[in-house]
Each structure stands twice: as C-alpha cells, then as structure tokens.
Amino acid sequence: MSAQPPSSLSTDDAPPVAVTNATSELKQPPAEKPSDIRRRGYVILSFWLIVLLLGLPIWWKTTTIYRADLPLQEMLDWSDGKACRPVFPLRISIQANSLQDQEAQNLLRLTQHALDDLNDFAGHHLRLQLSPPLGDEATSATNNGSALTIRLSPGEATTATLDPYEPTLDITYPPNNIPSPTASSSALATYVASQLRSTFGEEQATISYLLSTNSMPSEHRPLGLSPETVESLAKRTTRSLKYSPTYHLTFSLFTSGALPSSWDIETAIEEYMKPVLDVLSPIHNFTIDTQVQLYAAPGVQNDVLQKQDLSSFINAAEWPLSPSIGGAPTINFIVFVGNQTIVTSPESESSQSWLIPQWGTVYLLSQPWDTTHVSTETLKQPLLTFTSHLFSLLGTPQSGSLPLRLSTLTRIRSADLLLRASSTLGSLARLALALPSISIPSSVADGVSKTMTHLRLACDNLGGLDGLEHARIAEAEAERAFFEKSMVGQLFFPDEHKIAVYLPLLGPVAVPLIMGAINEFKAWRKRRREKAEKGAEKKKE
Amino acid sequence: MDGKVTIGRTAGLYIGAAVLRLAIFTLLPGIPDLLTGRVEISTPVTSFKRLQEGLFLYNHNVSPYDGGVYHQAPLFLPLFSLLPNASSYPIFTYLLYIAVDLLSAGALWKIADSGETVASALFTSPRKEKRWNGFIIAAVFLFNPFTVATCIGRSTSVFTTCAILHAIAKAVSGAPFSAMVAITFAGYLSLYPLLLLPPLVLLCYDRQRIERGIKSVIPFVATNIAVVAGIMGLLFGMSYLITGSWEFLTSTYGVQLTLSDLTPNVGLWWYFFIEMFDSFRSFFLGVFWLHLSCYVGGLTVRIRQQPLVVLTLLLGIFGIFKPYPSISDTSLFLALVPLYRHVFPLMRYTFVIAAVIMYATFLGPAFYYLWIYAGSGNANFFYAITLVWNLGQSLLVCDLMFAVLRDEWEVERPEMAGKEIRQI
C-alpha cells in the first residue's frame, strides 16, 4: 500500500532545473530531496526484507514435500522376485524299521534320484531323510519338522495308503523288492517316488500357479502346467477368501414360515465343526455367532431352483447378513428351511447346498411343516457340508489326507501372502518413482522397513507356521504403507495446479513489490551516471 | 469546542455513557445475549459465551482449554471468577464492562489533550488550530454505536482496546515504562498489539527526547524491549501458575496463528482458509501473517515524524487483516480517527467511506441471516458483504494516510496549499 508512497509527488527523472518552455503550461516539479530518496529506499527495503528474510523461509519450510527415503531398489527387487526365491524344502522321513541301515540308505539314495528325475520345479523340493529307526513314530514325525513320514513295512504286494489322521504314507513292499546295493535303479524306489509326486502334485501345481500369476522372473517359473489345471486352480483361487488371521462365522437359520423357530446349533457346532476348527487353529482363528430369522423370503420364490436362480437366492435387502463384524471378514453359513429343491441339469440328481465364492454357503433343509425345533441330528448333514465348504473357502487343497492338506494350506498361504506383500512393495516403489511430487511420510518408510524385515524372515522360514506369521505381518504392513491417507490425498495434485494456488493472491502482491524494486534500481543507476558525468565535467574544467 | 471543559461536563459525559449502557443492559434484557451471539461482535478469541465456558471449567478444576471452546488468555479467569456469577448477578459484569469503556475514553481524552496529533516532536501541522478537544473525542468514542454494541456484547476485546489506548496515552505523556506495561498487557490478551511496538517505542522516544534530552536511540529501544519481554514473561508465569500447564499458549496464541477455528467473522481469513487446499494451508497462514506485519516497517519509516499516525493507521489495517477481527477493532480505529480533525478537509472520499461503511453495517446482519437462518443464501453472501465492509475500512485508512501525507507535504511546499495535486 505504501510501497509507492503518495508523497513522491515529484518525479525521479525531473531535471535539476525546471525546463522553461514558453509554450508549455506544465510546470516541472522541483527535484526530490536526497532525504526523501533515501527514505523511499528504506521503505522499499523494509518490504523486501520481510519477503526475503521471513517469506522465503516460510515458503520453503511449508511447501517442501516431505519424502522419506525408501529403499526403492530393494523394494523393486522384492516385487521382481530377485530378493527371495520362494523355495519350499520339504523334508520327508523314511521309517524302515525292518530294513538294514545299509539297505535303507541305498533305497533312500535311489528314491531321491528318482524324485529328482521326476521333479521339474526347483521351487518345490522334496528331500528324503532317514528317521531314527527306534524313535517314537508320532513325535519323530512332528519333531524333526518333516512334512511327511513314509513307513516302509514288508507285505504281500506293493501298496500305498495315506494315514487319515497323521502325515504318514504307509507303503508295503514284497521282501524281494529291496534293491541290491549295486543296483542303479529299483522298482520300489520309483514307486515311492511316484507316490510322493502324486501326493504333493496338487500343492506343487498350486504354488507354481501362484508364482506364475505373479511377476516372478521366468527362470523360477515352472512350465509344466496344463491349461485345465490352470483353469481349475484359477477357479479355486477366486473361490477362496483373502487370507486373514481371523474369520467370523455367522450361522443363520432362515425359515420361510413361522416354524421352526429354534435350533440346536451350539451342540451341533460343538460336535461336527469344532474339531475341524481346532485343527485349523494354528492357521486361523474363528469367532462365531448365530441367528434365527422367521418369515424370511428368499430372493427367488420358485419351488425348483435353476442354476441361474442360485445367485439371486440370497435376499440381501431383507436378510440381516452384516458384511463384516469387527475387523475380521465374515463367512456366512445359511440353513434355509423351505420346500425348495435345486435342479441344475435334468439328468443330475437334486442337491441341497451350494457355495457362494468368497461369501459362504446356503443349505436348503426341508422339514415337515410342523417342526418347531431343528435337532442336532438334523443339523449334522448341513454342518458337514459347511465344514467341507469352509475348506474350499479357505483355499485348502482337495486331495490328500487332512493333516497334509492343512500343512499344504499353510505353505500355499505363506507363498500367497509373500507374493502379495512383495507386489505391494513394488507398486509403492513404482508410485514413488512415478510421482516425484507425492509426499512420503515417515510412517510409510517405517511400514516399508517392517515389511522387508518380515518378508526376509518369512522367506527364510517358508513352509512353517513362523513363515506364515511373518508373511501375514509383512502383508498387513505393506498394505498400511501403501494406503497411507496423507499420501493418497496428494496423489491428484500435479505441479501445474500450484500456479492456480499461488497466482491469485501472490500475483497482485508481487507486482507492486517488484515494480517498486525495479524503479528504485533504475533511479539509483541514473543518479550514479549523472554523478559520474558531473565528475567528468568537473575534471575537464 | 471552546476548549474549556468543566468538571461538570466531564462527569456528565461519563455518566451519560454509563447510563446509556446500563439502560440497554437492564431495560432490554434480551439485547446483551443477542449481541453476544453475533459473529460481528464475538469472535472465537473474544466471545463472552466462550469465556463463560472456560470460567465454568476453571471453577470446576478442569483445564479451561479442554473441549477446545475457550481461546482467551488465562488471566481473564481469576478476574471473572472474582465477580459473582454472570447469569445470576449480571449487574457486576455490566459494571465492569462499563468501567472499562470509561477508562478507554479517559485514555483517549488524554491523548487528545496532549496535542500529539497536530504537533509531534518532529512535525507541527500548519492546521493545528483546527482540532477537537478531548471531550468531543471521548464523546465520539463513547457514543459510537460500534463501541456500545461491543460493550453490550461483552466481548473481551474491550480489555485489549483499553490497554492499547492506555499504552498510547502513557507514551504521549512521557511514561515509557507504563506504556510498555500497557502494550504488553494488550499483546498478552490478543497477540497482534505486539506489532504496534516499533511505532510506540518511537513515540515514547520522541516524547522522552523533548522532556529529558535522551540522545541515543539504541539503549532506549533495548530497555523498552527488555521491559516488554520481562512483563510478558511475568504474565506467562502467572498464567502457568493459574492453569498449571503451558497448554494455554497453543490454545490462545496457537489458535490465532493457525486459525484452527473457522467460525465466520467480518474478516477476510475464514473464507479463504475454508477453501484452502490442506497442503498449502500452513504456507498461506505464513503469507497472511506476514502481510499483516509487513506494513509495520514501511509505515514506521515513511511517517517517521508522526508515530501516532502510524499507530492509528496500523490499528485500521489490523482491523481489516487480522485473523479474527470484529467491529470492536473498527471502533478502536474510529476512536482515533477524530484526533485528525485537522486533516479532514484534505480527505477526498469521506462521503463514499461513510456510505460504504453504513451499507455494510446494515446489510451485513441481513446477509448473515439469509445464509444461516433463512437458508436462501450461502457463505458467499456474507463473505461478499464483509469484503464491502473491509473495502470501506481500507478506503478510510488510505484516505487518512493521503491526508496526513499531504499535510506534511504542504509544510514543505506551502505554495501548493489548497491546489489540486496528483501523484506522478
């Protein structure tokens, strides 16, 4: 406002003596006093001092974007799979109590050879070892951390059976099948190798599928997956829920009329489902709630449900099915009491239940119209169905005995989480590189370093429960860092917009400031020149 | 205007002003609470309602700054808790506010009688005969509707006004220590008066030089700044003892510096910061505060001969550009303007200024009503009228500055008196 003081009523460039022009009526103002010139200089200086000494530091301090240092190259290495080769060293113990040590060693060597010949996927490696022959079978199998124990025992013919309760493969062999110490191949060894291969086939396929869908370098990428396998694996992967340490199970009884109005769900869960949940407990925790809803109208009223009806059967608008309680994802198990049946195709028999991918299961239960109470026995079949569907929803492989399937689930989930956390890290690194103006708060750098620590631990312990735990933490940290709120807000603020922010206010302020400084500078130069000229004239005289 | 003011007339003026206020307080009991709630009078940092909230918390041994409603200085709390409860015995609060207004008027009277405006240490106006005496100046202040409304609305800014006027009065009467104490109190209450320090110290210095012949300026300035720092430290220490923590610093001055409460007021900040991108908020807070303070240096240098003019113009500028202005700041500026009666003839836009200020005064509440209560307008309505209001005030500031500078210039060029001039 006073940068150009109104008192400067006389011009700077007025000549020292007024020009006396007879025709001009304008009288030139007298020259400015030196004190006035100096004062104007001070005024302009006072404004510029504030701008330069206070304004610039404030501008610098408040608008520089804080970018914490991220280990970008390492993050990209993780997402490219260079930092960690997911290798699952599976140890398999052989118990051959009836064999001589020498014979057993020999058999083991031959079997390992046969296995190595069969195996085409480096990431999934089976390694055989002899277990101490006299050790207690159950403890030795769990203690030495082997994934499977092969019990060799002499018998009539060559047979193989999986123990349904323990990770044990029982193989019988005719006594004359023991390979001689000098033999370079043996039918028994080949048989054992092919048995092992078929046992772990599904796991191998799943892991190689996971690796191939992620951006792993091609040398780790297994080749031998047939399109059908890929398709079925893709189907299974889309069906299963995202990994979470805790799931919430909701059991709902919906009835089309007023009856039945109560059910023995607690004892039924205790009896038919609890054992499975207990087995799953190292991998997942479960919380459970139940509800009963009378006069619940399904989304489809037909008596016979076609395949296309199944997707609209859930009456999402009216049924009280909360999407998620607390932080844990919800899995819904619905028993619907009504007289509807499912016929998917004319030739197949009618079924009772269907699975909704990543959501849950519906079981149609037909009851006599006057049933008031659903007993535990009636609930047996629905709950067994739910249990087997729960496995599918959790992404458990389908073949093999239960203990094997669970340990496979652990490994698959670890690999999945590891890959997902790595690719999130990679996305974050690419984001940081692509948007130089995005701010990176220190919490993000924190999350990244935590993620990498846990990824490293997970990578070193792949295959065990520790590995799963570390992979889970790594994934959670990576997601938290990627979705940091203060970063997302800055995403859509390109540099061009800054002009629109600065100009409207600072433009009008800057014009008088800069013009004042320029005018003052010009006047100063002119005064200097005049002084110099005067000095020169004096010298001449 | 005869220059002679009898004791009877003085008493009459004060009693008249007191009776007017008391009558509004008691005969129209709805008015005080109505005015207390008006955004034009009560800002988040001066509101009486918020003071009562803080007082309630304070009296119940809770930190008054809990809840984020109270943003005023902690020393108000013991003062107001000495008074009986404002809702059951409001008369004591009324009397306190009336007394503060009368004290301000007394200080103003002293300033007017000192003649500092027409004849400062370095400059004597050629029109010095033409000025109003203290009686008229005090009367204009006391019966200014803005002053009355601020008093009735019990905004705590009256205490700041009183402190600033006393600081000036002490400075012109040659008591730099008291002046510094008063300005420190004002700065303690509302922070921005500290920006008045440079011209005020110069005013004290000029006066001292006449009376005591002090030569060197630097020790004088240093002493004064030390006094301000010492008193401020003392006040902060007392506040710390009262509230038991340093929380009050962020809750009072922090709110003014960061504008965390965006309640609308007659100023220009709130709307701007509602619209501001979050990432630029701190930068523009810096810009706005620098803009507010950059006038201090320039004006002080330019009108070095008349520091009181600088103080007046700065108060006008603060009334426009400070973070939480209210009509109380305008009333302070308008109280000082009549001291320049001698340059009124040199002002060019008096009619426009009066019209714009009246226009905004009447339409402001109407537009606020349209926005908040009727819902037929939006925030832009109210913001537009505050722009007009501030335009009126800045016109007044500019015109007064022009008149004062022209007055100075005519000393230099007596032959130009009364002629049309233009800036080249």
Automatic annotation (TrEMBL), chain A:
The name this protein carries in UniProt is Phosphatidylinositol-glycan biosynthesis class S protein
PANTHER family registered for this protein in UniProt: GPI TRANSAMIDASE COMPONENT PIG-S (PTHR21072:SF13)
> Source organism's superkingdom?
Eukaryota
Entry GO CC: GPI-anchor transamidase complex
Keyword annotations of the record: Endoplasmic reticulum, Glycoprotein, GPI-anchor biosynthesis, Membrane, Transmembrane, Transmembrane helix
Q: Where in the cell is it found?
A: Endoplasmic reticulum membrane
Major localisation: endoplasmic reticulum
Where in this protein does the record put region Disordered?
Answer: 1-34
Membrane topology (UniProt): Multi-pass membrane protein
One Pfam match, by short name?
A: PIG-S
Gene Ontology BP, a term: attachment of GPI anchor to protein
State whether keyword Membrane applies.
yes
Give start-end positions of Polar residues composition bias. 1-11
Query: Which residue ranges traverse the bilayer?
Result: 42-60, 499-521
Give the pathway: Glycolipid biosynthesis; glycosylphosphatidylinositol-anchor biosynthesis
Return the InterPro entries for the record. PtdIno-glycan_biosynth_class_S
Indicate the family of this protein.
Belongs to the PIGS family.
UniProtKB/TrEMBL annotation, chain B:
Membrane-crossing segments per the record: 12-31, 91-111, 132-155, 175-205, 217-242, 268-296, 308-327, 347-369, 381-405
For the biological process aspect of GO, one term held by this record is: attachment of GPI anchor to protein
Task: Extract the signal peptide range.
Answer: none
How is this protein positioned relative to the membrane?
Multi-pass membrane protein
List the pathway annotation: Glycolipid biosynthesis; glycosylphosphatidylinositol-anchor biosynthesis
Q: Which UniProt keywords apply?
A: Endoplasmic reticulum, GPI-anchor biosynthesis, Membrane, Transmembrane, Transmembrane helix
User: Record's InterPro entries?
Assistant: PIG-U (IPR009600)
Give the chief site where it resides: endoplasmic reticulum
Gene Ontology CC annotation, any one: GPI-anchor transamidase complex
Localization annotation = Endoplasmic reticulum membrane
Superkingdom is Eukaryota
Q: Which family does it belong to?
A: Belongs to the PIGU family.
- Report the protein name in the record: Phosphatidylinositol glycan anchor biosynthesis class U protein
Q: Which organism is it from?
A: Podospora fimiseda
